Amino acid sequence: MEDSSKAVLDRVDVRILRTLQAEGRLTNAELAERVNVSPATCHRRTQRLFEEGCITGVRAEIAPAAVGLSALVMVGVVLDRSTPESFAAFEGAVLELKDVLDCNLVAGDFDYLLKIRVRDMADFNKLHGQKLIALPGVRQTRTFFVMKEVKENAPLPF
Amino acid sequence: MEDSSKAVLDRVDVRILRTLQAEGRLTNAELAERVNVSPATCHRRTQRLFEEGCITGVRAEIAPAAVGLSALVMVGVVLDRSTPESFAAFEGAVLELKDVLDCNLVAGDFDYLLKIRVRDMADFNKLHGQKLIALPGVRQTRTFFVMKEVKENAPLPF
DNA sequence: GATGAAATCCGAGTCAC
DNA sequence: GTGACTCGGATTTCATC
């Protein structure tokens, strides 16, 4: 993968990105028509965008409820030490937890903010008691149950 | 769109979902091979999963840095009143803000948690001063700059 | 150095079974 | 759910600017 930050994107590239961000399963022929280039050119451009890492993947979005993951929980985590080793250990362990969809190191009242999907509150309590507080170096967690998902994973505005 | 919560998913459906979640641009022929069914069957199953709303869409993931959106910020919001009208007004306004990727109503110290992508801190300060604190009913915000994205938008674990 | 037209081959989508 | 059949798209080649 090339350094995507070096890629120079012209208008056609941007149109391809925007279109595929909205409809990732478009055929090359349709995509070409939408962005007003020939199918051959569109194919080459799109391939380049993948190779350069501008497009990191194309993924189907699954309705969480359809696969029994109706509950969304945000968790703020505070570690008991602020050493590089402490952060690395925590991050390594969190990467193994499939229920954790997002994990970000932040500046503020917490060290990390996690986004977690589980079946229900009972499931979360189990995860919290057995996994989260057992993660390396965790001093404290604060849980925010999501009561309503107003907007989830909106497309990038560019 | 049907009620996806009523759909009964068998093993083949689940394999299709998992596979398309990882590689949304697979051809039907390849998908059929991966899940061990005939192309015709695979095609009908996949179509059904879309129609039932189990698959809500297929989207290309764009590297944020490639389109000049390198900064990620989480923001906790507290409203000054907890009335249904107040919540509705806030939510309606937030849906218009393209920089806000996620917005969730939560239980805890905040009313809402937002996930925001912008170019840099200067951009965020402008957004914060001109748009966020001007949203209807906002009493207070707390900003968490993301210093490191450990995990972003991981696939659903099912 | 990238483009579009044409040419080949393979998959999508639909049928009967 | 399978197998076959037709049509259209994916992908490459090549001449061109």
UniProtKB/TrEMBL annotation, chains A, B:
Domain of life: Bacteria
Entry annotated with the keyword Signal: no
Parts of the chain that traverse the membrane: none
Keyword Heme: no
Keywords: Activator, DNA-binding, Transcription, Transcription regulation
Ranges where the HTH asnC-type domain occurs: 9-70
PROSITE patterns: HTH_ASNC_1, HTH_ASNC_2
Pfam families linked: AsnC_trans_reg (PF01037), HTH_24 (PF13412)
Official protein name in the record: AsnC family transcriptional regulator
Native source species: Labrys miyagiensis
